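Sanity check. The docking grid for NDP depends on where the pocket ends up, so I'm generating a full predicted complex first rather than guessing from homology. Inputs follow.
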Amino acid sequence: MKKIALITGAKGGIGSAISSQLVKDGYRVIATHSAGSQESAQEWFDANNFNTDQVRLFELDVKDTDQCSERLCGLLEEEGTIDVVINNAGITRDGTFKKMSASDWKEVIDTNLNSLFNITQPLFGHMCEKGAGRIVNISSVNGLKGQFGQTNYSAAKAGMIGFSKALAAEGAKSGVTVNVVAPGYTATPMVSAMNTEVLESIKAQIPMKRLATPEEIAMSVSYLLSDAGAYITGETLSVNGGLYMH
Ligand code: NDP
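Predicted complex below; grid placement will be based on this.
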C-alpha cells in the first residue's frame, strides 16, 4: 500500500518538484491547489503525465480554517490515512514596513503562517493516534535572516520555525516528526523570469554563485521523509548555497 503525502501549493515552482519527487519515491500525492485554479491544476497534472493513483488534485484554500477542517476530515475518511504533510503554499506581498498595508500584512500571515494551523491541525491527531507521521514546512532563508521589504514574509517564515519546534516536541513521543526546509533563492519559473540584472546581483551575493534548483529543494524534503530522516525532528534544514549560515 502506498504512503499518502499531502502537499499544499503542489503545482507551484517548488511544489511541483516536490510532487514529482514524492511520486518517484512511491507516494500517492494529494496535490492541493487554490480555489478556482482547477483548470491549471488539470493542465499541470496532464503535462506531468501523472495518473490518478499517483496524484489526486484537491482544491483547498489554505487561509480558510473552516474549509480546511471540513475538507481535510473528509479527505482522511476517503483516503483512510495521511502519512505526510508538506506545508508549501506561500505568497509574497513585499513593501517596506512604513508603506505596508494591513491587508498585505494579513494576507501573508494568513497564507504562510495561519495555514499551518489550518492544514496541520485536522491531520496531526490522526498521525499521533497512528504512531507515525512526517510533517515538513517550507520556510525561507528570509525567515532566518530577515529581509528588507519583507516584514510580513520574514515574520511568517520565522513563525513557521517556532511552530515546527513546538509541534515536534508534542509529536515526538507519538512517532510524528516535524521539520523545516528553508530554501534560498530557487530557480522557479517566477524567479528565473526576473530582470537579468536583478538576478545577477542576487547570484553575486550567494557564495555558490547560483540559484537552487527546485529539484534540490525537493530532494531535501525527500531526505527528511526517508528512513535516513527518522530521528530528525524540530530541525531546520537550510538549502541556500551558503547565503545565510545559522
Ligand atoms: P509559487 O508561487 O510557484 O507557488 C506557491 C503555491 O502556493 C501556488 O501553487 C499556489 O497555488 C499556492 N497558494 C497560494 N495561496 C494559496 C491559498 N490561499 N490556498 C491554497 N494554495 C495557495 O511559489 P514557489 O514554488 O516559489 O514557493 C513555494 C514555497 O517555497 C513558498 O512557501 C515560498 O515562500 C517558499 N520559498 C520560495 C523560494 C523561491 O525562491 N522560489 C525561496 C524560499 C522559500 P495555486 O497555484 O493553486 O494558486
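Relevant for the grid: The chain has one domain: 4-186+214-239.
Also worth noting: The pocket of NDP is lined by residues 8-9, 11-15, 33-34, 37, 60-63, 88-91, 111, 138, 140, 183, 185-186, 188, 190-191 (CB under 6 Å).
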